[in-house]
Amino acid sequence: MTTDNIYKFIVVEDHPLTRDGIVNYVKAHERFEHIGEFGDTRSVLNSTFSGRPDLIILDLNLPGIDGERSCAILKQKFPTCKIVACTNYPRTIKELKALGFDGYISKTEKEFFIDVLLKVLKGEKFYLLNEKKQFADHSKFEELDKFLKVKELTSREIEVAKLLMQDFSNREIGENLIISESTVETHRKHIKQKLGAKNKRELREILKVYEI
Fold it and tell me: 3-class DSSP state for residue 197?
């Protein structure tokens, strides 16, 4: 990272339109400096660019050396660099951790993209996925947001409530929000109180009205 707190990043994605979209979206943020974009991992290894990257946004479905094998290779070349998998192909948290990725986000999760990158760059492991399903389209949560805000849920409680609605377990919610299972359970209790639910079943029935 440079002295002016700017993170240098590169994107490895074989589809030019998608690559351009990711590059333009991330570099528009004041904390990021774009220093390279590539269609495959071999091009990264054979190229030079201005400075060493703090972050690599890496597609998993690449020609030649696929994204899964690329992570270890790129980590070896750039030991201090954070690597975030960016794809529409589902993977489990266990798989991604084993491969060495610092984080994961779906290409469709534009709302969370920058937040995930910044969390990872701060040293957190962040995997915005679930082994049973991908997150639902959060643009469809508008009515649920309004309802939960009326019930005076905090922003964190709203995040937890959305995941509970999608049948995520306390463990899975904790992994995705980078909080402990006990903290998730505390949020669950507060949510039940504010929504007037006596138990998990009643809470599920209240949230099910807004199911995507």
Answer: coil
